[in-house]
Design a protein that fits this description.
This protein is mostly helical and about 170 residues long. The chain is built from 3 helices and no strands. The radius of gyration is 56 Å and the shape is elongated. The C terminus is likely disordered.
């Protein structure tokens, strides 16, 4: 005796009819993809033809422009040669005109008879203590003793030769 409690299998049994239906659905789907692929290929072919036509036009334009550049280069070279020959022919005339129209001025002399036009004396550039007859700020009479520990090392002693050169004459 078998008890059937209403428990079903999670998957139905494999039947040939179900497999045929699955294959027919897949066949329809693949045919749709094939038609879409044909459409895409047709569009790509059209685009490729347009690109090739534009490329041919561009190549033709490049050839025409290259020929024009060559013509203009030759014309420029001819005009440069003509210009140079004309400059050489014109050079003597330009030199003659420059010599004829030259401005010559005699050497200038300044009239210094007026007192206001007299030359100034040179500027006295010396150190201030030489110009005014004074000595540097260190005075030997007020200098601290050399043996005093508070005396900086740069202060000369009263009997050194540096001290003699610093004395006011």
């Amino acid at each position: 005796m078998s008890l059937h409690l209403g428990i079903r299998r999670p998957k139905p049994k494999h039947r040939a009819v179900d497999k045929v239906a699955d294959l027919q659905d897949e066949n329809r789907r693949l045919r749709g993809q094939l038609i879409g692929a044909h459409d895409y290929i047709a569009l790509a072919d059209g685009t490729l033809a347009d690109v090739r036509a534009k490329r041919a036009e561009a190549e033709q334009v490049v050839v025409c422009l290259s020929a024009k550049v060559n013509e203009l280069t030759e014309e420029r070279d001819q005009l440069t040669a003509t210009n140079e020959s004309l400059r050489q022919q014109l050079a003597p005339y330009l030199a003659a005109d420059a010599n004829r129209d030259a401005i010559t001025v005699p050497a200038a002399e300044r009239d210094t008879s007026d007192g206001a036009d007299q030359a100034t004396s040179p500027i006295d550039v010396r150190p201030l203590w030489e110009a005014h007859g004074i000595s540097p700020v260190i005075r030997i009479a007020d200098a601290p003793a050399a043996d005093d520990p508070r005396t900086p090392t740069w202060v000369p002693g009263p009997d050194s030769e540096t001290t003699q050169s610093l004395r006011v004459a």
